[in-house]
Amino acid sequence: MHNNFLTNILNISNIPFRSNSIKIAITGLSRSGKTVFISSFIDQLLYQDKIISITSSHPPFQTKIKAPLSNAKRFDYYTFIQELKQEHQWPKGTDEITHTVLEIETKSRFAILGNSSFKIELIDYPGEWLLDLTLLNLNFKEYSQKTINWLKQLNIKEAKKYLQTLASLTSDISGQEVEIKLHNEYKNLMIYLKENHYSQITPGRFIMPSDLANDPMLLFAPLTPNAAPTLFKSFEKRYKKYVKDVVKDIQLEHFKGFERQVVLVDVLEALQNGYGCYKDMKQGLKSMLSFYNHKNKNFFLQWFEPSINKVLFVATKADQTTASQHSNFSELLIDMVDELKKELDIAHIQTDTQIVAALKSTTTIEKKYKGQTLSFIRGILEDDKVLHDLYPGEMPSKFPTKETYDGANYGYKNFLPLKKSYRENESLEHINMDRVITKLLGDLL
Question: pLDDT tens, 170-197?
């Protein structure tokens, strides 16, 4: 009896260390599916009916949504989950920084310790705003030059049109009418680039202004170094104010104290839109990751000033391809992430990958096609709201080169949530969200 008790006490040292609260950054570029992912993540923790891998290998636990923080906007889980479960519609992406506090109570493996609880704080940061943090290290002249160089590299007519406008400016041009025209032309270009799947778009508030809509502070655009002095000074003044008052004083405040991070990657978007989109997305992810604190700290420094020590890369929308292609999908994500890890100094950090569908909107079926039996997906297409069977093609395990890429090989489409009737306390139907929770929180449960 004495020996067993002593053994149990000694085994306590193997329990992973944790504080009473842990902050998790949910990050991803625009269109990566953060709103649905967070809604499903919370839903799975609340109801657990399909988290087989957790409940079979960990003691029981209970999750509660806590009151919102007094100084933060709460993630609107209840509205989003109603849209997904009852209205069968995708919710709009969030246009503000939002927080969710969950309290998880676990039953201890050791009876003498009783139950314990800890809190997790989820922070969602709009993808449109993330890359604005690059502006902290650039003055207006540097920002303009970097943006203009990028537009030249794109080699598309919409970008060329804006560059031609800049070239036509005379040295004495000035006035509000000119400022508004230039700003609107650049803003419309950014909107066009976003709609055509480019990621590196700044300033983010030009396309998602939120509470800054029509604020005169946003009245600027990148200019060439030889632009009219009066125009340059006006734009430079507003740019400085934007960086100081919005990017530095407001947005940067939300990038402290994270211990874990989820990075959402829309791999299918890159496959659909070509090598240029793929390279642009990778550069955007690299820039985004560089904003966070991933320093290698010892135990004591980690206690007083946490830095991220676990990163989970998640490829969303796994239901847009067939189950038979999920193995290749996983390999493609790993290949993409391995390159990012080599380019960033995060070798000391525990990283993992996972493909998911936060809400499963299709089913895989087998059909005969030209004498072959092929895997199709069946679902309600977002375009016409009609049930379709679609053959999405085979997914590569590595991204095609610029020379070998053929967009005709990738027929991915957006589907609406299936019209399923959910029981009370039944979590969203998903693909692999249980594995996400295991990989992200399993050591704490």
Answer: 888 888 999 999 999 999 999 999 888 8
Residue 292, pLDDT > 70, answer no
What CA–CA distance (Å, rounded) separates 342 from 282?
12
- 315 lies in the same domain as 435: yes
8 inside domain: no
| Residue 70, pLDDT above cutoff 50 | yes
Burial class (CB in 10 A: 0-12, 13-18, 19+), 370: exposed
Residue 2 has pLDDT above 50, yes or no: no
Domain assignment present for residue 178? The answer is yes
For the stretch 263-278, what's the b/e string if a residue is b when 16 or more beta carbons lie within 10 angstroms of its beta carbon? bbbbbbbbbbbbebbb
Position 9 in a domain: no
DSSP secondary structure letters along 187-222 = HHHHHHHHHTT----S-GGGT--GGGTT-GGG----
296 and 318 co-located in one domain: yes
Residues 6+ apart with CB under 8 A from 67: 101
> Model pTM?
0.85
CATH number of the CATH domain containing 36 = 3.40.50.300
Q: Number of folded domains in the chain? A: 3
Which residues share a beta bridge with 374? 367
Same structural domain, 350 and 368: no
Would you give the DSSP letter of residue 51?
-
Do 439 and 291 share a domain, yes or no? yes
Residue owning tokens 């201890």: 108
Domain that holds residue 378: 363-409
Amino acid at 356: V
Same domain, 281 and 429: yes
pLDDT range class, residue 10, cuts 50, 70, 90: very low
Cα 314 to Cα 32, 41, 144, 293, distances in angstroms: 10, 12, 33, 19
Q: Is the pLDDT reported for residue 4 higher than 50?
A: no
CA-CA-CA-CA torsion for 212, 216, 218, 223, nearest 10 degrees? 180
Question: Which of 103, 104, 109, 107 has its CA nearest to residue 14?
Answer: 109
Residue 417 lies in a domain: no
On average, the pLDDT of the chain sits at: 84
Mean pLDDT of 307-322: 89
Amino acid at position 65, single letter: I
